[in-house]
Specification:
alpha/beta, ten-stranded mixed sheet, four-stranded parallel sheet, 10 helices, about 15% strand, binds threonylcarbamoyladenylate, binds magnesium ion
């Protein structure tokens, strides 16, 4: 690995000169631009093929820096930032007029996060102002959790990718909207509903609408190229032997490969929610690159700890009708090819 101090210096120089940089945070890798550099931010949108109305998160080194960007800091923000910053939590504020339009989709609000990763912090502090950064993947694809993932996603299109260890958390930050009467969780994460409610001293709801304010919550986001579906443990055998017979299926399983498995690839996932989340995207990337026609994820448990994982799996899955259609088409195509082959 290249010398980290040298990479940080290069990263700061690059950002100061209007470049865009792939860098690690504790959640996933970001694609950073100097927040007040309209041209550099535009480059982030174009490199990601991200629609202009999808707002980006502003990364700061401490809460006080938010004063430059936001109208007011509500009490809830003080409580949450004290409890969870620096860390994997993003807060939505009302923006000061005109300061953030180029990365906030003209919403009049602004998403702010103070990351804990030492490299992210060194970049922000060295730059002397905030870094605007979405996850460093092409639009709608899995977030990268390693430098090589960023290279696979965007290599050649960005000015610099910082080489660092894999991300500790592995899924994106929790997003809490503080611009309405009551705080609302727009995107679940490792800092979960229970922890947030406890700190705020009130029950905080989680938004479930599909067209809400966080475009990352649209269905089929964070998706691999290969269609993905989640299958209940007790239906997996039938799914592999009957429903998808003839298809090559890669399974992200919860236990060692069972006797019955008709899977082409069987990947065992970690048992606990935190290591599962940490490895989720990299394992899905591996299965995506395995050449299989379909990815089946054995459904994880359903309790508090697993909500963020369920959210990401849901966003990676194709809808049931589309899945059935896909399986039918692959089977028909194969049948046709077999008939064609035997007619020769
Ligand atoms: O962990 C993370 O949050 C990572 C790292 C790099 O910090 N970043 C990340 O950024 O996941 P991105 O752009 O992939 O996702 C940001 C999410 C999107 O769903 C976006 O819609 C939402 O934040 N968002 C940003 N600004 C917003 C705003 N003003 N109002 C509502 N949602 C906002
Ligand atoms: Mg993203």
């Amino acid at each position: 690995m290249l010398n980290i101090d040298h990479q940080i210096r290069e990263g700061i120089r690059c950002l100061k000169n209007g470049g865009i940089v792939g860098f690690p945070t504790e959640t996933v890798f970001g694609l950073g631009a100097k927040a007040d550099d309209v041209g550099a931010v535009a480059k982030v949108y174009s490199v990601k093929s991200r629609p202009q109305d999808h707002p980006l998160i502003l990364h700061l080194s401490k809460m006080e820096e938010a004063n430059t960007w936001v109208e007011e800091i509500p009490r809830a923000a003080h409580k949450l930032s004290k409890a969870f910053w620096p860390g994997p939590l993003t807060l939505i504020f009302k923006a000061k007029s005109g300061v953030a339009n180029h990365f906030s989709g003209n919403l009049g609000t602004i998403a702010i996060r103070v990351p804990s990763h030492p490299i992210a912090r060194a970049l922000i502090i060295g730059l002397g102002t905030g870094i605007v950064a979405p996850s460093a993947n092409r639009f709608g694809r899995l977030s990268p959790t390693s430098s090589s993932d960023v290279f696979e996603e965007l290599g050649g299109k960005v000015d610099l990718i910082i080489e660092a260890e894999n991300c500790r958390i592995g899924i994106e930050s929790t997003i809490v909207d503080l611009t309405e009467d009551r705080p609302v969780i727009l995107r679940p994460g490792i800092i979960d509903q229970e922890k947030i409610s406890l700190v705020l001293g009130e029950d905080v709801v989680q938004k479930v609408s599909q067209t809400n304010k966080a475009p990352g919550s649209h269905p089929v986001h964070y998706a691999p190229n290969t269609p993905l579906t989640v299958v209940y443990r007790d239906q997996l055998e039938k799914f592999l032997h009957k429903d998808t017979s003839g298809l090559s299926v890669a399974v992200l399983g919860r236990s060692i490969r069972p006797q019955f498995s008709g899977a082409a690839v069987w990947q065992v996932a970690p048992t606990d929610s935190l290591p599962y989340a940490k490895n989720l995207y990299s394992l899905l990337r591996r299965l995506d690159n395995s050449g299989c026609e379909l990815i089946a994820v054995e459904e994880p448990p359903f309790n508090g700890d697993w909500m963020a994982v369920h959210d990401r799996l849901k966003k990676s899955s194709i809808p049931k009708m589309a899945l059935m259609e896909f399986i039918k088409n692959v089977k028909e195509k194969k049948l046709k090819n077999t008939k064609h082959g035997s007619n020769k």
